[in-house]
Amino acid sequence: MLQISIVIPLFNEEESLPELTSWIQRVMKTNNFSYEVIFVDDGSSDNSWEVVKNLCSNYEEIKAIRFRRNYGKSAALNEGFRYAMGDVVITMDADLQDSPEEIPVLYKMIKEDGFHIVSGWKKKRYDPISKTIPTKLYNYVTSRMSGVHLHDMNCGLKAYQNEVVKNIEVYGQMHRYIPVIAKWAGFNKIGEKVVQHQARKYGTTKFGLSRFIYGPLDLLSIMFVGKFGKRPMHLFGAIGTICFILGFAIASYLSVAKVIFKEYEMTSRPLFYLGILSMIIGVQLFVAGFLGELISRQGRERNHYHISESPGLEMSEEGQHRT
Questions:
Q1: Which regions in the chain score pLDDT beneath 50?
Q2: Contact 242, 249 (CB under 8 A)
Q3: Secondary structure string (H, E, C) spanning 161-215
Q4: Are 155 and 148 in contact, with CB atoms under 8 Å apart?
Q5: What is the pLDDT of residues 173-202, one digit of tens each?
Q6: Can you tell me the distance from the alpha carbon of 204 to that of 206, in angstroms, rounded to the nearest whole number?
Q7: Which of 104, 121, 207, 315 suits 156 as a labelling partner, its CA being 20 to 30 A distant?
């Protein structure tokens, strides 16, 4: 097995790719690592794929995957993880903001210190204050909610044991929460390392303010799936049962009161409608839990993507990687 697989998702980064590849190669040779670099082109509209194909022909360590359209960073990482053969898997961005010089220490922390995951922490950032303050708030809330205490949850520079990436699934925009996903999968040894943040040299950022809206929603999804993904009835069924019992108790009380105190109309009291509403909601939630149990046993095809080309990579019929 190779020592290191470097998975690099990219989208319209044609200018930075040659320089990044040369930098990675220099670091790998200096440290005598056996390695592979897997570029995942997430449907770039510029000349990135031509640059990547040229790199594949010039360096035997370079391999690549191309999506027919833009699926997002999570999809790119998930496909890269499928093909990664290295004992340690490193992820980094293609925009030169992550330094390959950090790789040897990250590798050591996985192999010698026994971490399942090591996440980079860009303690000193070259970003505008409009980005740094929301990021700090986002990291604080995420740490509190998930129990994974990292200063920079969304840092693209991370290291994983190969076993970790083969046992997690990343989809939607869940790449921000891979440490949380890994924790729910049973990989609890999660470390952190201060890494250098490079100022962007080429192009522009591919992520807008929408990530601060979708990010918390994705976190709630992960928390729900992590706790109740295999047993949705435990959540919806429990809440539904409580609501139904509460509504039934209200209706029973009003019925008994109607028999004893005949001078008022039961339906004239607001409490009557509260009881009926509680029973209806209770039944609906219970049915939702039941349907969730059925759905949770399906959906195995949700992470299949249309790949048009993958030079240097192929999958055997048994699903094993070969080159």
A1: 317-318
A2: no
A3: EHHHHCCCCCCCCHHHHHHHHHHHCCCCCEEEEECCECCCCCCCCCCCCCHHHHH
A4: no
A5: 788 889 988 888 889 899 999 998 876 677
A6: 6
A7: 315
CA distance 136 to 116: 24
Classify 13 as helix, strand or coil: coil
What residues contact 97, with CB distance under 8 A and at least 6 apart?
Answer: 156, 197, 198, 199, 200
Q: Residue 239: CB partners within 8 Å, gap ≥ 6?
A: 285
CB 39 within 8 A of CB 62: yes
CA distance 210 to 215: 8
Q: Which two tokens stand for residue 186?
A: 């049973």
* Residue environment code for 126-148, b if the CB has 16+ CB neighbours within 10 A, otherwise e: eeeeeeeeebeebbeebbeebeb
CA distances from 237 to 74, 248, 260, 290, 294 (A): 31, 16, 34, 8, 13
Q: What is the pLDDT of residue 93?
A: 92
The answer to whether the Cα torsion of 196, 198, 204, 209 is positive or negative is positive
Q: How far is the C-alpha of 13 from the C-alpha of 192, rounded, in Å?
A: 27
Please answer whether residues 120 and 157 qualify as being in contact, where contact means their C-beta atoms are separated by less than 8 angstroms.
yes
The whole-angstrom separation of Cα 314 and Cα 312 is 7
Instruction: Tell me the pTM.
Output: 0.72
According to DSSP, the β-strands at 62-67 and 307-309 are antiparallel
CA angle 116, 321, 3 (to 5 degrees): 45
DSSP classification of residue 323: -
How many angstroms separate the CA atoms of 195 and 193, rounded?
A: 6
Place of tokens 């522009």: 204
- What's the pLDDT score for residue 204? 64
What pLDDT sits at residue 102? 94
pLDDT at 261: 72
What are the beta bridge partners of residue 161? 88
